[in-house]
Amino acid sequence: MREWRVVDIIVASVVSVAVGVIFWAWSAGYAGIAVLTAAFPPLGGLYGGGWLIAGVIGALVIRKPGAALFCEVLAAVVEAMLGSAFGLGVIIAGLVQGVGAELVFAAVLYRRFTLPVALLAGAVSGAFMGVHGSVTSHVAWALEWKAVYVALGAVSGAFVAGLLSWLAVRALSRTGALTSLASRRAHTERAL
């Protein structure tokens, strides 16, 4: 069953709003990261995984086409509405990052929600974040710096968005909070 139900829309929206608040707080913390990485700014890519959580967790919870994109974009809209330091550009960034995660879940036909798939979704989303940042915010960087930024974004995406989202969904399903969703038995599914 690939069609979205009302409960899917409601849960995806609630998850997105909650993660949008996290995005906003994560953005506020970036000023400190920028200071810490001033000697080699591409290291900031390691911080990027926090902005990728919505797409991965949304797809893992809803398990339907469009969930990663919907959740990542809506979370970015919430972040923008709360007054992100990055302005309305976060919405475009959310779109790009959501597409990255969505492509991975589409590649497995929305049928596999294992740890490797979650890690790959986070990594691809992180790579998309890195490429987007390289062509919009870091245009003056040398190509080598951009490559490092993309690679570190992918690493951060895999571990922060991929691993943490996968663990969170397993924990949520254990509580019974996902009873009306396809992810209700996530805690009993094989990791691989």
Automatic annotation (TrEMBL):
<dbReference type="InterPro" id="IPR017195">
    <property type="entry name" value="ABC_thiamin-permease_prd"/>
</dbReference>
<feature type="transmembrane region" description="Helical">
    <location>
        <begin position="33"/>
        <end position="60"/>
    </location>
</feature>
<feature type="transmembrane region" description="Helical">
    <location>
        <begin position="7"/>
        <end position="27"/>
    </location>
</feature>
<keyword id="KW-1133">Transmembrane helix</keyword>
<feature type="transmembrane region" description="Helical">
    <location>
        <begin position="147"/>
        <end position="169"/>
    </location>
</feature>
<feature type="transmembrane region" description="Helical">
    <location>
        <begin position="117"/>
        <end position="135"/>
    </location>
</feature>
<protein>
    <submittedName>
        <fullName>Membrane protein</fullName>
    </submittedName>
</protein>
<keyword id="KW-0472">Membrane</keyword>
<dbReference type="Pfam" id="PF09819">
    <property type="entry name" value="ABC_cobalt"/>
</dbReference>
<keyword id="KW-0812">Transmembrane</keyword>
<feature type="transmembrane region" description="Helical">
    <location>
        <begin position="67"/>
        <end position="85"/>
    </location>
</feature>
